Predict the structure.
Amino acid sequence: GAGVSQSPSNKVTEKGKDVELRCDPISGHTALYWYRQSLGQGLEFLIYFQGNSAPDKSGLPSDRFSAERTGGSVSTLTIQRTQQEDSAVYLCASSAQTGASSEAFFGQGTRLTVV
Amino acid sequence: AQSVTQLGSHVSVSEGALVLLRCNYSSSVPPYLFWYVQYPNQGLQLLLKYTTGATLVKGINGFEAEFKKSETSFHLTKPSAHMSDAAEYFCVHRGTGGFKTIFGAGTRLFVKA
């Protein structure tokens, strides 16, 4: 596609439910990143994929969070047993190269609200 | 540990005035540094980046930033602010040895007519 696509754009869920957030990176981009932007806080790195593998999962805040990427393309971020503190905008980005200097292109984000 | 500090969560300038958004980083490894901008209701967009070579980098929309290793700074400037520059700006650090990306807290720029 022309850009990074994330779905849904908005998600309201009840506390304790599981949610899946989807990211479609730019076609051919090998690197994919997930970030979280919480109200009043900066962007927080969650996880990085190089192809289908995740060499850096250090940012996942708890074991309720997991992510996978299949076919070197689409990625899903799953949050189990959601809590109110999980409410945030979840951003996905992709880049064409795996080098740390490469530019990342961001999606519009998924706004998650846990009630 | 790597960190990024943006001085001033809000900066207000008059149209036509100099824009200066400050960013300091701490890192034990050589950094790659980026500035991203987020316009209202839009996604993040890369303004400019420093990797190696020339320490003064120019970006889109007339912005530039200078990497100063001795000061561990990467301040963003624009000689003359425009109303359309009103947005939130993020300074970003990525270590050359890895892919963990550290964002600053962001600086919201207001431009007064």
Notes: The mean pLDDT of chain B is 90.
